[in-house]
Known about the structure:
The structure holds two protein chains of two kinds.
Chain A: H1 7-42, H2 58-68, H3 79-95, E1 106-108, E2 111-113, H4 123-144, H5 148-179, H6 184-191, H7 197-200, H8 202-215, H9 227-230, H10 240-265, H11 276-283, H12 285-311, H13 319-349
Antiparallel strand pairs in A: 1-2
Helix pairs in contact in A: 1-2, 1-10, 1-12, 2-10, 3-4, 3-10, 4-5, 5-8, 5-13, 8-10, 8-13, 10-12, 11-12
Chain B: H1 3-24, H2 28-48, H3 52-77, H4 89-112, H5 129-137, H6 141-162
Amino acid sequence: MILAIDWMVFIEKLVLIIAVVSGSLIIAMYSTYMERKVAAVLQDRRGPSRAGPFGIFQPLADGLKLFFKEEIIPDFSSKFLFILGPSLAMLTAMMIGAVIPWGNKMHMFGRDISLQIADINIGILYVFGVVSMGVYGIMIGGWASNNKFSLFGAMRAASQIISYELAMGIALIGLLMVTGTLSLKEMVGGQMDHWWNIFKQPLGFLIFLICAFAECNRTPFDLAEAENELVGGYHTEYSSMKLGFYLFAEYINMFLSGAVMVSLFFGGYDIPFVNDIHLAENIGANWAAILQGLCLFGKIVCFLFLFMWVRWTIPRFRYDQLMNLGWKILIPLALFNMMVTGGLILLKQNHWHF
Amino acid sequence: MEITQILFWFLSALAVVAAVGVVLSKSPIYSVLWLIVVFFSISGHYILMNAQFLAIVNIIVYAGAIMVLFLFVIMMMNLNAEAEPAKNIYLKIAGVIAGMCLMIVFVAALAQSADIKVPIAKGTDIGLIKNLGKALFTTYVIPFEISSVLFLSAMVGAVVIGKKEQ
C-alpha cells in the first residue's frame, strides 16, 4: 500500500468541500438580489421585478450579462498578475469556509460525519491568516491595472485592511480569554445551551463587527472603490467576469464573516431557547443537525441584512476619519476590553476577592 | 513513501524553486510574490512538524503583514525592469563567488553537526498552542518579557522618528 489514506474520510471531506463552496457561491449570488431588494425597500422603490416572479432570476441574468461582456486586458499591464488578482480574491474569500462548523455531527452510512471541513486547533488564527491574505488579490489587481486610480484604490484597501486587522485581533483576545480555546468547534460547543459569548464580550463584539465591515470593504469603509474620488477604485480596469469575481468575492466575504461572527458570538449552530441535546435524542441526530444548520443560516442572513442596512443608511467615511477611527479609537478600546476582561477573569478565579 | 514524506519533498522542492525565483525575477514585484510562496512552503513544513501555531503566525506576520508592506513600498516606488541601472559585471561575479562560499560554509557546518541527524520525535506536541503558551509563560518567561519590552521600545522609536517636527 503506497498511499495509506482512509478513502471514506477523503470522499466525505470532498463532498463537504464541494457543498460548502457551491453553497457559498449560491448564497453570494442571491446576496446580490437581497442587496438590491433591501436597497429598494429602504429607498421606497420596488427593486428588480422583471426576471421571474419577484425578480427571483435577476442574479442569473446579471451573471449571464457579466459572462457575455467583452473581456478587456489593458495593453501595458502584466497579464499574469492581472488575472491572478481576481483569482486570489476569490480563493481567499472561499478559504474561510473550511474552519466554520456548519452543524453538529450527522450519522450516515454507519459513520459519524462532522459538518466541519477541518477542525484545527488554531481555527480562529487560520481565519486571520486567510483574511490577511485577502489583501493580495486587491493589491495585485490594482497594481497590474497600470492605472493611477486603481493603484490608489489598492493602496487604500491594503492600509485599511492591515490597520483594522490589528483592532480585530486585539478585540478577539478578550473572547479567547473567556472561552480558553482557539478552535471554532469548541467555541460553539461552549455556547450550546449556555449564555452566548455576546453577553460576555459585548464591547469585543462591537469592535469586531466594525472591523469586519472594514475588512470586507463594505460601506461606510469602502474607500478602496470610492467612485466619486477614484472612478472605480482597484477594479476600474476590470471588465466581464473578472470584475464579477471581485464583486462576488465581496459577497462571499460578507457571508463568511457573518458566519465567523455567528460562530464566535452568537452560538453558531445553537438553536436558541431549545435544549439541543434533548432535541437530538427526540428527533434523531440527523434532523437535529439539519435544524441546527438552518438556524445558523438564519443567523447569518440577519448579519447579511445588517451589512446591507448599514450600506444604504450610512455615508462613506473620509480617509483620515477612517484611519483615526481605526488607530485612535478602536485599538485603545480593544486594549481596554482586553484589560478589563483579564482583570475580571482573575477576580473570578480568586472568588471575587481582591 | 508515506504521505508525509511526499508532502515533505513537495514542500522542499517548492521552497527551493520559489527561493530561486526570488533571486532570478527581473521585476521586484515578482520577487516579493515568490517570497510569499517561500513563506507558505515553510509554513507547510511547520505543520508537518505539528507546530501549527508557528505555521499560522508565520503566515499572518510574514506573508500577511510584512510582505504586504514590502509590496506597498515597491508599488509606490514604481520600480520597472527598465529603470533598474545595469550593474557592473565584476560585481555580479564577486557576488556569485561570495554566495557560493557562504553555501559551502553552511553545508560543511550542517554536515558536521550531530543535532541534524537526530530524527524529530513523531507525535511531539510542543508546537501546539497550549504547550507553547505554558512553556513561554513558565520556563522562558523572562526572555519572553524582555523581548516584548524590546518590541515596545522599537515601536516607540518608530513613532518618534515618524513624528513630524513641531
